[in-house]
Design goal:
Elements lengths: L1 E5 L11 E5 L9 E4 L10 E3 L4 E11 L2 E7 L1 H8 L2 H6 L8 E6 L3 E6 L8 E5 L3 E4 L2 H4 L2 H14 L2 H8 L9 H9 L1 E3 L10 E4 L7 E2 L5 E6 L4 E6 L10 E2 L8 H12 L12 H22 L8 H18 L6 H13 L3 H19 L7 H12 L3
Parallel strand pairs: 6-10, 13-16
Antiparallel strand pairs: 1-2, 2-3, 4-5, 5-6, 7-8, 9-15, 10-12, 11-12, 14-15
This protein binds S-adenosylmethionine.
S-adenosylmethionine binds next to β8, α6 and β13.
């Protein structure tokens, strides 16, 4: 149990630090003084923004000897820290057979030295920085720079050096540039606060974008880790790639997104193939988008089972050509309802099972949003499977 007393408080620079006597240590030695909530090993540094106060929250004992820093309100950071035990308990995936190498036209990239099977986890990376995505627009540029420089100072030296060695392709101080170039949007559970976050994962940061990638990145809210999974078999010597944005975009949309959002001109295989191939792929993707809209807008008046099955068949053919299979859980589920509606429960079960497998494989993670999976499971239950 902890006995706490409020220390002097400077609203601009210091959070309300609670000095606590940890009487769990007694009897024996003198009780130790520590900051309440032993999850943070550094004194927080805070700035009062327009709507909220944002603080740095750093622990040097996060996972596998690494630290992590959170920039968020105190309540959000404490809610996020409740994932720490699950982070520590998460399985360890060796990175020994992954190698950072120079890749023509893309700086560095991540190469695998062993073959990887579809569905395998390639990386399970720990974040070093988790920062509210809202804070930069709620504090002044100099306050933002102070928060970033403080977390850098507070992280263990090995983490600091690793982060500063990452690619810097945009602008700002070194650490701001590293964040802009390498951080991913992520959604940890921050209690009732509900901010969006930017997470920096050092190994994932070495993975280049491809419009038709061989791997998929998904954030695991329960453990705060980023998982990189193979979407197809990958041979030894191949570069690992992920998509930084939606995978169903057409060529011009992708080029614009990566230029405007990340300041690079995409030179992946899909973007550098022949004009003829690009036009063919764009045509298929445009049809995919059109079919998706048609299927989503079906009403009881326009319902036509044969038409739906034909459209879904086309969706699946296109996705096989374009590498969009991981987007199909909703299509499998729709087919399950159509077959069930016509009393064809065996087919309905096959499609509902495919929907569940696809959600589990690519979308829903332990601790992540579970509504879709619950709906499919309930439906499978109704079908008696
Ligand atoms: C997250 S980093 C990826 C690793 C980085 N190449 C490195 O050297 O560490 C993102 C940066 O890599 C480069 N990059 C990633 N994918 C690319 C692509 N498909 N085409 C060209 N440059 C790319 C861009 O400079 C981008 O800002």
């Amino acid at each position: 149990s902890l006995q706490c007393a409020t220390s002097d408080y400077n609203a601009l620079t210091q959070p309300q630090a609670l000095l606590c006597l940890d009487d769990d240590n007694a009897p024996g030695g003198p009780p130790s003084l520590r900051v309440k909530n032993g999850k943070w090993s550094q004194e927080p540094f805070c700035v009062a923004g327009q709507a909220k106060t944002y603080c740095t929250h750093t622990t040097s004992d996060f996972r596998n000897g690494h630290g992590v820093s959170v920039i968020a309100s105190r309540e959000a950071a404490n809610a996020i820290s409740s994932a720490f035990p699950a982070s520590k308990a998460a399985r360890y995936i060796s990175e020994e057979r992954l190698e950072v190498s120079r890749i023509p036209g893309k700086g560095k990239g991540l190469i695998t030295r062993h073959s990887i099977q579809r569905g395998d986890t390639i990386l399970l990376d720990s974040p070093r920085i988790i920062a509210s995505a809202q804070f930069p627009s709620h504090v002044s540029p100099s306050q933002g720079a102070s928060l970033f420089s403080t977390i850098l100072d507070q992280l263990p030296g090995t983490d600091r050096d690793l982060l500063l060695s990452l690619d810097k392709s945009i602008s700002g101080t070194d650490i701001e540039n590293v964040m802009k170039t390498n951080a991913f949007a992520c959604q940890p559970d921050d209690g009732e606060v509900g901010d969006g976050y930017m997470c920096l994962f050092p190994s994932v940061s070495r993975i280049n974008h491809a419009c038709r990638p061989n791997a998929h990145a998904r954030f695991i809210p329960k453990s705060l880790l980023m998982e990189i999974k193979a979407v197809r078999d990958i041979e030894a010597g191949e570069e690992i790639s992920i998509s930084y944005g939606r995978i169903d975009l057409k060529h011009a949309e992708r080029q614009r997104l990566y230029k405007e959002g990340w300041n690079f001109t995409c030179t992946c295989n899909s973007c550098t193939s022949t004009a003829y191939e690009i036009a063919g792929s764009d045509q298929r993707r445009a049809r995919f988008e059109q079919l998706r809209k048609l299927l989503e807008n079906i009403t009881s008046e326009t319902y036509d089972a044969q038409q739906i099955v034909a459209w879904e068949k086309e969706v699946m053919e296109i996705s096989a050509r374009e590498g969009l299979d991981m987007l199909l859980a909703g299509d499998y589920e729709r087919l399950a309802y159509v077959y069930a509606g016509h009393g064809m429960n065996r087919d309905a079960k096959i499609w509902a099972t495919k929907a569940k497998e696809s959600l589990m494989e690519w979308t829903v993670v332990d601790g992540g949003p579970g509504n879709e999976i619950r709906r499919v499971e309930d439906f499978l239950g109704e079908l008696g499977g």
